Amino acid sequence: MRKRSLIPILYIAFLMLPIYWLVAMSFKTTNEILSGFSLFPQTFTLDNYKVIFTDPSWYWGYINSIIYVSLNTVISVAVALPAAYAFSRYRFLGDKQLFFWLLTNRMAPAAVFALPFFQLYSSVGLFDTHIAVALAHCLFNIPLAVWILEGFMGGVPKELDETAYVDGYSFPHFFVVIFLPTIKAGVGVAAFFCFMFSWVELLLAKTLTAVQAKPIAAEMTKTASSAGYELGLLAAAGTLTIIPGAIVIYFVRNYIAKGFALGRV
Amino acid sequence: MKTENQKAWFFVLPVLLLVAFNALVPIMTVVNYSVQETFGNNVFFWQGLDWFEQILRSDRFQAALGRQFLFTFLILIIEIPLGIIIALSMPKKGMWVPVCLVLMALPMLIPWNVVGAMWNIFTLPKIGLLGYFMNDVLGVNYDMTQDPLAAWITIIVMDVWHWTSLVVLLSYAGLVSIPDAYYQAAKIDGASPWKVFRYIQLPKMKTVLTIAILLRFMDSFNIYTEPFVLTGGGPGNSTTLLSIDLVKIALGQFDLGPAAAMSLIYFAITLLVSWLFYTLMTKDDAK
């Protein structure tokens, strides 16, 4: 073992400490948490998790989050695919300006949009629905998906398209049967980043929902506000929000490092 | 070369419609509010550019903007070099690479308010691991709800914890794309590790570092949820960054006019600085 591998090990240890503390606390009783410091749970309990899995307002938070995140990922990638193809293969009027304008939306502070989004989605009757959050998150996820997919598509030689047309493939047939499989890594990376940014965003998700589509992360505020004596419950809910992300990373582990590297700036 | 084809617009149309729906209508709403005054009941009066002037001159806005720039500056000078150092010291191949990448990416996939709550639990005096360690083991008086300096250090460390991995992943992606032949040539020439870094690794990482700096700038400049959950902008106003202040004015006090004017100024600053970064970092490529 070389000396410099110490740096990543120390860094990962630093990353894991707060996560460990969250997980450890989720297995403690409220009494133990408040009575003082203990490195490991002394009286190991699953009560905090039991509360979450038996109370509909808790577990529906998870279902709501997963519904709108999945909807957003599907919509973002589906509309970004043809657009990224157009940007990577054709020149057309205003293409560069359009590409830049898309990226500027990635720069907009979410706080700026919170109030107008509330009014916009209320006025079209979509307030407190999953689709409202999914559509709102398109604001920053579509530009990102177009950016990543365009990078991957740019790496595919144009001869592939031309050969397919010579062989008599129609465009939709070519796109689905030949082109999509060659950029499937790119689709995976784009879907990963859409999932990630939709899953972690809360300000807009909270603003656009009240009861029916309330995300899990917003449910958690009800323990935080009650003066902190439900810390165990808060920790258990927090621990459960890490799991979907961890599963998704595992599937794309060989591609995440390449994700942005292939995109153009 | 790309072929000219105006029909490509049809491919872009769905993206254009969806993003325009989300971007143009709200921006127009904000512009509308920013030039009017209301006393409720949907009665509006033309106000001109008064709100803009009032915001730009107010001490409160200038203080929040100053804190925001300080925060983003500290984030960039800590996270970018740290990310590069970690990426350089990671193994190039082997079974540990995916393990490292998965563990490092984990903080980025935790919902932002959970990040805030997690750090809150972590730093509580007496109860939290870090709070206990600082106060009871090291004997340092550490309480971020009382001490502005402690609050600042905590939100900085939290952001380093949260986002340095993005810089690591991007730099690492740039590093693994360097062919071995470059290193062999450097070895034959007897280049020092610093020279290898300066003349081989850094130029190869330039594209990904541009992306990393831009993304870290945008996201740290727009940060809201994590510091809001962790400190609530306190103690006092010491950690009230721009977004936190904006939400306080817009949703807390419901002062729509000033909030809208502030939103537009805020957005304009983000765009301007992003454009400056982008131009500075890519100007060599144009030559």
Characterization of the model:
The complex is a heterodimer of chains A (265) and B (287). With 265 residues, chain A is an all-alpha fold. Chain A has a domain at 62-216 and 243-258: MetI-like (MetI-like fold). In chain A, 73% of the residues lie in helices and 1% in strands. Chain A contains 14 helices and one strand. In chain A, helix 4 (56-89) runs parallel beside helix 7, helix 5 packs across helix 7 and helix 8 runs antiparallel to helix 9. Chain A is globular, with a radius of gyration of 22 Å. Chain A starts with 5 loop residues before the first helix and ends in a 14-residue tail after the last helix. Chain B is an all-alpha fold. Chain B has a single domain (59-286), classed as MetI-like (MetI-like fold). In chain B, 73% of the residues lie in helices and 3% in strands. Chain B contains 13 helices and three strands. Chain B has a two-stranded antiparallel sheet with strand order 2-3. In chain B, helix 1 (9-34) packs across helix 13 and helix 12 runs antiparallel to helix 13. Chain B is globular. At the A-B interface, helix 1, helix 4, strand 1, helix 5 and helix 6 of A face strand 1, helix 1, helix 4, helix 5 and helix 6 of B. Strand 1 (90-91) of chain A pairs parallel with strand 1 (3-4) of chain B, so a sheet runs across the interface.
